[in-house]
UniProtKB/TrEMBL annotation:
The organism's place on the tree of life at top rank: Bacteria
Similarity section: Belongs to the NAD(P)-dependent epimerase/dehydratase family.
PANTHER family linked: DTDP-D-GLUCOSE 4,6-DEHYDRATASE-RELATED (PTHR43000)
Lineage, broadest ranks: Bacteria, Pseudomonadati, Bacteroidota, Chitinophagia, Chitinophagales
Protein name from the UniProt record: NAD-dependent epimerase/dehydratase family protein
Species of provenance: Niastella caeni
InterPro entries attached to this UniProt entry: Epimerase_deHydtase, NAD(P)-bd_dom_sf
Gene3D superfamilies documented for this protein: NAD(P)-binding Rossmann-like Domain (3.40.50.720)
Length: 298
């Protein structure tokens, strides 16, 4: 099976390349990073020409991992975020429509489309109420996927990924926490109250979820939650991280929040489980894997 990973140099994209090659897929990579490698296509970041990719090769599956994933920056540069997370999706799908209509398209969306849900767990049928331009743009991309399925019979699906983590992610909670404890001997400050919660999913589990989706989903334009189905507070995550790193450091939560960040998340993953998926990496095991990687970054 021929698979195209757009955004192959990013966090999820790079893991997808490694995982699906290990599964025996013929994987072609594409990104804006300038390098010369077999099965690698260079994308012009200013004028991306997706049509040339699908005009010259035929793919069975396309994973779109090109999107920007920075909530705070989407407030500062909303037009750029819109281009990357919304317009690119339209252009990719229009190219597939013209040259490779049999290709299954996987759009990496985000749980940010839900904002602050009225109740937990969050089902795919919950109200869409984004808190940021990023969340709105991911929602728009889902609608584009649905449009191309309904109007052009393309095979599309959007994955509402919750709090992804793993080796190679050089931003967000675990990376920031590592930098703080590396530069402190006795105490650090963290945003929020510590009582905020997330549904963390290890990147290796995301890859397995994508594999189940490729093999068993209908690709009928819908969106599906990709998460562990477990809620954990930020305070608990921080102390688990410190325990794994064997650091005795005092944590002070400032009570300040970041714009666009939700309060509490836990996903309903019934739809994903119906395909056979079960998360294989619990939080402590995932943090232990991150710890090994982080120690090699010093």
């Amino acid at each position: 099976m021929k698979l195209l990973v757009l955004g192959s140099e990013g966090f999820i994209g790079s893991h997808a390349v490694q995982y699906f090659r290990s599964e025996g897929y013929s994987v072609t990579c594409a990104d804006i990073v300038l390098k010369a490698e077999p099965d690698y296509l260079l994308i012009n970041p200013e004028l991306p020409d997706f049509s040339s990719i699908f005009r010259n090769q035929v793919f069975d599956v396309c994973i779109n991992a090109t999107g920007a994933a920075n909530v705070q920056l989407s407030f500062q540069y909303p037009a750029l975020d819109y281009m990357i997370n919304t317009v690119n999706v339209y252009n990719i799908l229009d190219s597939i429509r013209q040259y490779n209509p049999g290709c299954k398209f996987i759009n990496l969306s985000s749980a940010a489309v839900y904002g602050n849900p009225a109740s937990l767990p969050i089902k795919e049928t919950h109200a869409i109420q984004p808190l940021s331009p990023y969340g709105f743009h991911k929602w728009y991309s889902e609608q584009i996927c649905k449009q191309f399925h309904l109007q052009h019979n393309l095979f599309t699906i959007s994955l509402r990924i919750f709090s992804a983590y793993g080796e190679g992610l050089k931003k967000q909670l675990f990376w920031d926490l590592h930098k703080k404890i590396s530069n402190s001997s006795d105490s650090i400050e963290m945003f929020g109250t510590g009582k905020e919660s997330r549904d963390f999913i290890y990147v290796g589990d995301i890859m397995q979820a994508i594999k189940y989706i490729i093999d068993k989903e209908k690709f009928d334009g819908k969106a599906i939650n990709v998460a562990s189905g477990k809620e954990v507070t930020i305070e608990e995550v921080v102390y688990t991280f410190l325990k794994v790193f064997k650091r005795d450091i005092k944590i002070r939560f400032t009570g300040n929040t970041k714009i666009g960040d939700p309060l509490n998340w836990r996903a309903d993953i019934t739809a994903l489980q119906a395909l056979g998926f079960q998360p294989g990496t619990d939080l402590q095991s995932g943090i232990q894997k991150i710890a090994i990687w982080l120690k090699n970054q010093n």
